[in-house]
Amino acid sequence: MLEVKSLTKSFGGVKAVQDVSFSVGEGAIHSVIGPNGAGKTTLFNLITGVYQPTAGQILLNGEDVTGLKPDMLARRGMSRTFQNLQICMNMSACENVMLGAHLSLNHGLLAGMFSGRALAARDRECTAEAHKLMAFTGVAKYIHAHATQMSFGALKRLEIARALAAKPRMLLLDEPAAGLNHTETGEISDLIRKIAQTGVTVLLVEHDMKMVMSISNHILVLDYGKKLAEGTAEQMSRDPAVVSAYLGAA
User: Fold this and answer.
1) Could you give phi then psi for residue 17, rounded to 5 degrees?
2) More exposed terminus of the chain, fewer Cβ within 10 Å: N or C?
């Protein structure tokens, strides 16, 4: 589904990502790991159009999408969450999820003037879809709540529900378990498995190694912006270079 070819991003004289290549199979849970400063979030921002690459190519379903803006990638089936929560705290929980479906809604002036009934019907459908997604992500009890009434762990799952409202074929999750306790991390792990079982491809950046090793079909390891290794969880846990990058070598 995704091919990254020789991707490079420089900020002045600093190469945050250097000549990184990898591919993600359809329906897989593919994780990107590495020490702090390894370039994981920069890689995500390049893939999702937040940053423009200095060099390299990104293919989505065989189409060259290098340098496309986030909204154009969303129209092609790519959605994401962020390392730091991007929840609209002045909205209800349900409204936050509905926001993710904005590309499929027509709320323009002409639609309001001449298609009022159709617009109202689509709003009801969108609300019902948001309720289903909130149930799917485990935050159904907040359907009638304001975002400010939700716990941090629930807000993490709400952000995933909003990303799913765009009906993506590929979902990128940037540290979904960051700041969560053991129980909440387990809930996020179960949710990611459920998402993959629906056919959505998942690309994951995460520091919780227990979580990564338990749910990933494939793992890419970055170190100082370069690809250090890739393979299955078992292969990565035994790779001396990976162990050295995380723990240091004598």
Assistant:
1) -130, 130
2) C
List domains and CATH numbers for the chain. Answer: 1-77+168-250 (3.40.50.300), 84-167 (3.40.50.300)
Q: Is the dihedral of CA 101, 157, 76, 129 positive or negative?
A: negative
Let me know how long the chain is: 250
Calpha distance 90→6 (Å, rounded) = 41
Cα–Cα distance list, 45 to 92, 191, 215, 235 (Å): 28, 23, 23, 27
Q: How far apart are CA 219 and CA 52, in angstroms?
A: 24
Distance from C-alpha of 200 to C-alpha of 207, rounded to nearest angstrom: 22
Amino acid 161: pLDDT: 97
Distance between CA atoms of 44 and 61, rounded to whole angstroms? 17
Instruction: Enter the tokens of residue 160.
Output: 């995933």
Residue 21 CA to residue 30 CA, distance in Å, equals: 14
Question: Which value, to the nearest 10 degrees, does the dihedral of the CA atoms of residues 223, 226, 228, 229 take?
Answer: 120
Phi and psi at 119, nearest 5°, equal -65, -45
Please provide residue 126's backbone torsions phi and psi, each rounded to the nearest 5 degrees.
-65, -40
Retrieve residue 175's tokens.
């540290």
In order along the chain (250 residues), what is the average pLDDT of each group of 10 residues? 96 93 95 91 94 96 95 94 90 93 60 57 84 97 95 95 95 94 94 96 93 95 94 91 72
DSSP at 12: T
